[in-house]
Design goal:
Layout lengths: L1 E5 L7 E4 L9 E11 L3 H6 L10 E2 L4 E8 L11 E4 L2 E3 L9 E3 L3 E2 L1 H8 L10 E5 L3 E3 L8 H4 L2 H13 L7 E5 L4 H12 L4 E6 L2 H11 L3 E5 L4 H12 L3 E6 L7 H8 L2 E9 L11 H6 L3 E4 L7 H10 L9 E5 L4 H11 L4 E5 L2
Parallel strand pairs: 12-13, 12-15, 13-14, 15-16, 16-17, 18-19
Antiparallel strand pairs: 1-2, 1-4, 3-5, 3-10, 3-19, 5-6, 6-11, 7-8, 8-9
Helix pairs in contact: 4-5, 4-10, 7-8
């Protein structure tokens, strides 16, 4: 099969012939129809991200495609079935704290690197092998829409945080970082989950206006000034009532004051979920946390059962994947696709390869 291989950080991806994967017990091989290209893939290729990835490796986080073959222990998947290949691979020998690898991207610690030796290669190929549990059935879809179904990968990250935060229909949720790639998806997912009101703060006024246009009166936007106290007051005023849940998705470039201002809008007995990339100490006041019985937790990626749940939200139309504008490239044009993703990536934009 043909695949886009990263042989050395700093070198471009090389499209070449590699051996076809052969599934064993607990594994599935899928013919890739659409593989998403993350907007920061160029930084992975250059080595700027310093991701844990043994080379050479086939890049690509996940894919949408049809089952080619299954291992002897598969009982429901059949060749030809449409599936989403989830890149979050977990070790099977520790149910409480499994090691994790993001297939085709990076590993979490030494245990993840050990797992990566087997599940290393991602979706920038004509075929991909994944654990059986990572091939999530999609049901029948139009092949032309496979790229749009690949957008589930963007939505799954904030969905994991909203699930951990226990978002309930009718509640008010504040998305800190709402104008970013994952923040915009978080707004869409929160609406799909039945949020009564979504507070979307940010500095990019055109991006905020776009969120209002897309989602209507349930989204209330706030233009941030950079003053922590003023911004907190503005966000609370936009909620016109208690903020039940805060989901932080701010990037590493954001200030810690912006994250703290958003977090401290939450009501008594409210919840705060941290999923962003800020590296500094958040420094939430001890007395505020204790006296208001606030729950704060971190979440990296999403639980396994989030995948079929989100697929169900999309299949019934609550999560509208037509919001995403998809640009498609052939596998032979992977270099152009990586550049395009870097230049155009953002809210509701997705670049995919069509091997």
């Amino acid at each position: 099969m043909k695949a886009a291989v990263l042989k050395e950080f700093g070198l471009p991806l090389s499209v070449e012939e590699v051996a076809d994967p052969a599934p064993g017990t607990g594994e599935v091989v899928v013919d890739v129809v659409a593989a998403p290209v993350l907007h920061y893939t160029a930084e992975v290729v250059s080595g700027a991200r310093q991701y844990l990835l043994d080379l050479p490796a086939i890049l690509g986080t996940g894919a949408v495609g049809r089952v080619r073959s299954v291992g002897p222990d598969a009982t429901k998947l059949r060749p030809g079935d449409w599936v989403r290949c989830d890149p979050t691979v977990r070790s099977r020998d520790d149910a409480l704290t499994p090691d994790v690898v993001l297939q085709g991207l990076t590993a979490r610690g030494d245990g993840g690197l050990a797992l990566q030796r087997h599940f290393r290669h991602g979706g920038f190929a004509e075929q991909i092998m994944v654990p059986t549990e990572n091939a999530a059935p999609l049901g029948e879809i139009d092949e032309a829409d496979a790229g749009r179904w690949a957008a589930l990968g963007i939505c799954l990250v904030p969905y994991g945080g909203l699930l951990d935060g226990g978002l309930q229909p009718g509640e008010t949720v504040l998305i800190s970082g709402a104008t970013g790639t994952y923040g915009g998806a978080a707004v869409a997912v929160a609406i799909a989950m039945g949020a009564g009101r979504v507070i979307a703060p940010g500095r990019n006024q055109s991006a905020l206006a776009d969120l209002e246009r897309r989602f209507g009166h349930r989204v209330r936007t706030v233009v941030l000034s950079g003053n922590e106290d003023e911004d907190r007051a503005a966000m609370q005023a936009a909620a016109e009532g208690p903020v039940d849940l805060v989901l932080d998705l701010l990037p590493p470039s954001a200030s810690i004051a912006a994250a703290r201002a958003a977090a401290m809008t939450v009501r008594e007995f409210g919840r705060v979920v941290l999923m962003g990339g800020i590296g500094d100490e958040l420094a939430l006041p001890y007395s505020w946390l204790m006296l208001n019985s606030v729950t704060v937790r971190g979440r990296w990626m999403y639980p396994r059962d989030a995948v079929p749940k989100l697929i169900a939200l999309a299949r019934c139309g609550l999560l509208d994947l037509t919001q995403f504008e998809v640009d498609e490239f052939a596998l032979s044009a992977v270099g152009e696709a990586v550049e395009h993703a870097a230049e155009t990536g953002g809210r509701f934009r997705l670049t995919v390869l069509r091997p």
